[in-house]
Design goal:
The protein has two domains: 86 residues, Endonuclease Iii, domain 2; 110 residues, Endonuclease III, domain 1 (Orthogonal Bundle). It has twelve helices and no strands. It is mostly helical. The longest helix has 17 residues. Bound molecules: iron/sulfur cluster. Iron/sulfur cluster binds next to α9 and α12. The site of iron/sulfur cluster has 15 residues, from α9 and α12.
């Protein structure tokens, strides 16, 4: 599967796209939000000042700053609580201790933060610290299930199930994540997947069963 999506979307060398705390907060903002609105929300959030200033700001002001993201009223307190927990941790706002912590412990530390799920934690660990985890977002989940790599299960369980099938090789995991995500956005969409032009068609269980009439994804 990795070879086919690499051929379609190219090699993706592993390198952090933004600093770890930016990645963490942006991923919280990205939940149920497209990347343009996520970025706009993050940029406006940072106009409130440094992380200490964001913690100290009234929660309504934080919610207003991130209003381009969906559910700002519930995300604002979670972001503030997460920042407080990080500020009060041994490394303060520096998350680099995650680099050397056992992966299981690092995942637990991150997912214990308010509003941080396994996807967000995995993104930070893989993208920023090249740790061997595999983030499963909605696109990766849908494509992996339709092709038959994993049986139907929730996104959370899919993290473990897919990781068991994949080599513990961060560059491999990074490229596969990015290319499956791209494939889900461009070809294997929620409704009317474009099976006629799909590079995974020959190995896809859903295509084998439904031909060109793969049903809409119900999650
Ligand atoms: S063949 Fe269709 S359902 Fe299967 S991965 Fe490709 S686009 Fe998705």
């Amino acid at each position: 599967m990795k070879e086919q999506v690499r051929e379609a979307y190219g090699e993706k060398p592993l390198s952090p796209r933004r600093d770890p705390l930016h990645e963490l907060i942006s991923t919280i903002l990205s939940q149920r939000t497209n990347w343009r609105d996520e970025d706009a929300a993050y940029q406006e959030l940072r106009t409130l000042g440094d992380w200490d200033a964001i913690i100290a700001a009234p929660t309504e002001q934080v919610a207003h700053a991130i209003r381009r993201s969906n559910y700002p009223e519930s995300k604002a307190p979670r972001i503030q609580q997460t920042l407080v927990a990080i500020r009060d941790s041994p490394g303060g706002y520096d998350l680099d201790f995650l680099k050397n912590m056992p992966v299981k412990d690092a995942l637990k530390w991150l997912t214990d933060l308010p509003g941080v799920g396994v996807k967000t934690a995995s993104l930070v660990l893989l993208f920023n610290y090249a740790r061997p985890v595999f983030p499963v977002d909605t696109h990766v989940h849908r494509v992996s299930t339709r092709v038959g790599a994993i049986p139907k299960m929730g996104e959370q369980a899919a993290h473990k199930a897919l990781l068991k099938l994949l080599p513990p090789d961060p560059p491999f995991l990074y490229e596969l994540h990015i290319n499956l995500l791209t494939h889900g956005q461009r070809v294997c969409s929620w409704h009317h997947p474009k099976c006629g032009v799909c590079v995974l068609r020959a190995r896809c269980d859903a295509f084998a069963v439904f031909g060109g009439r793969v049903p809409s994804w119900k999650g």
